[in-house]
Amino acid sequence: MADTRPTAAIEAVESGLAAHGYIASRQIATAVYLSQQIEKPILVEGPAGVGKTELAKAIAAWRGLKLIRLQCYEGLDEAKALYEWKYAKQLLYTQILKDKLGEVLGDAQTLHEALGQLHAFGDVFFSKEFVEPRPLLQALEQPAGCVLLIDEIDKSDAEFESLLLEILSDFQVTIPELGTVTAVAAPTVILTSNSERDLGDALKRRCLHLHIGFPEQKLEERIVETRVPGISQALRKQMVGFIHEIRTLDLKKLPSVSEAIDWARVLVLLQATELDHEIVKDTLNVLLKYEADIEAATPQVSAFIAKASRHGVFS
Predict the structure, then answer these.
(1) Is 195 in the same domain as 257?
(2) 138 and 39 in a common domain
(3) Range in 6-15, 36-45, 170-179, 214-223 with the lowest mean pLDDT
(4) Is residue 3 packed enough to be buried (19+ CB in 10 Å), middle (13-18) or exposed (0-12)?
């Protein structure tokens, strides 16, 4: 019999995500568990590259659900996010109706009767058959449920948040011509934000809040080990320690987890066994994306390697 205690269930989330390559902290696993139990979306905030989008992908893989992704951007509107009409199909049917107008009107004796018959056909043009569902509507229509990823919500306009409120609170949406469409099975909704703008209180009230920052060293070592299995334990400890030292600097963009993984792959590719000044200098552009940041970090490279090496010996 399965253990239904919350602690065991949260541990099951951790192991389930780990089986698909996502090493989750206890806080992340707890948020995923609670989201499932109370059917609330999760608003995941934090710097770019810490695993917000990957969390949604891992949940979908672990639960065997379809992942539907809506990438947000400035100017995103209902037609791209929810639905739009199949105008080409409507035009084609209009032409068919025009060609068959005599048959449609049949034996109508008055203008009122003719308009009534045409009105009945007009309703067909705004039926479900002519709707092109976009990600939000697709998510509501999945018979087995899905994971709906609303990625980088902070890049959309504030007006777009209003469109989401009904969907996030009741898993339904109202389309004027069709009425209310309710989810067949409630989707698991993950919204991500890099905090480029403040989100509205109404949106935040409808979500569980989860902040994913840069992980502690032990957790980041586990992440690197999972994603880059070919790296030695000694080099893994040393490189993660070095990255944590780099993050103490006042840089335009601190290296993220995704960049740590890229750097680990590069070091393995170059057959490095340990960090030294030359290999770090030659590959620092993998970690740091701005020349000003590289220039600021370069004078500290030797000292940071030494600190990271001492940590690796005594940890």
Answers:
(1) no
(2) yes
(3) 170-179
(4) exposed
